[in-house]
């Protein structure tokens, strides 16, 4: 994907996004990952949300954020004006990895390793180029870590959530990054200070962003 996409019509880009998702459905590149790969609606949205990786329920149902973490995420987003149905239909819901990484022997889901993250990066990178969003919402540390130039090498939520960060891709996409914590029930960050204070700040920044407001109108 290159800067040439900036001059391609929206209709053509939507066709390419659908083809991109069909190709993603057939990806079996990572031997330790459990598919089939999951993606959101093929929607050319000014807002792109990037999660971590699907869980078992997402794989079963073929939809991102369809279980407990999703309930929390959609509750947060409903508080700023879009319910789950509207988010799914209007926001490009992406992820760092699109297959289930399996369980961590120590508990919880395994975090995808470096080669898996790299192998899958072309899928969300392609979505980014085709969608050309004006607002990017990385959800959780793994998604935040995909933007080291903008958000730094550290992924301390205390330093990153509740602020807006400028993003410019090599192909000329200009957007704002507004990170959110992962809404997993295993996370305690957003239930304690400073997360309790920073999460509403981040949601307020999203609510007032022109790209989000355009989805509400
Ligand atoms: S994690 Fe990504 S790159 Fe790996 S098999 Fe699944 S879709 Fe393909």
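^ Assign residues to that structure.
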């Amino acid at each position: 994907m290159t800067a040439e996409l900036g001059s391609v019509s929206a209709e053509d880009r939507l066709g390419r996004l659908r083809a991109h998702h069909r190709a993603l459905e057939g990806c079996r590149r990572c031997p330790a990952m459990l598919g089939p790969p999951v993606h959101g609606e093929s929607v050319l949205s000014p807002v792109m949300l990037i999660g971590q990786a699907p869980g078992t329920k997402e794989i079963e149902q073929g939809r991102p954020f369809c279980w407990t973490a999703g309930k929390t995420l959609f509750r947060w987003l409903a508080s700023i004006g879009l319910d789950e149905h509207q988010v799914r239909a209007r926001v490009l819901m992406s992820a760092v990895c699109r297959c289930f990484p399996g369980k961590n022997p120590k508990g919880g889901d395994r975090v995808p390793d470096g080669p898996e993250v790299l192998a899958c990066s072309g899928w969300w990178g392609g979505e980014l180029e085709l969608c050309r969003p004006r607002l990017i919402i990385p959800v959780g540390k793994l998604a935040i870590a995909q933007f080291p130039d903008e958000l730094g090498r550290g992924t301390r939520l205390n330093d990153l959530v509740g602020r807006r960060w400028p993003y410019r891709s090599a192909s000329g996409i200009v957007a704002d990054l507004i990170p959110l914590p992962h809404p997993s029930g295993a996370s305690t960050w957003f239930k304690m200070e400073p997360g309790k204070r920073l999460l509403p700040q981040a949601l307020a920044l999203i609510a007032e962003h022109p790209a989000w407001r355009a989805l509400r109108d």
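The CA atoms of residues 14 and 124 lie 15 Å apart.
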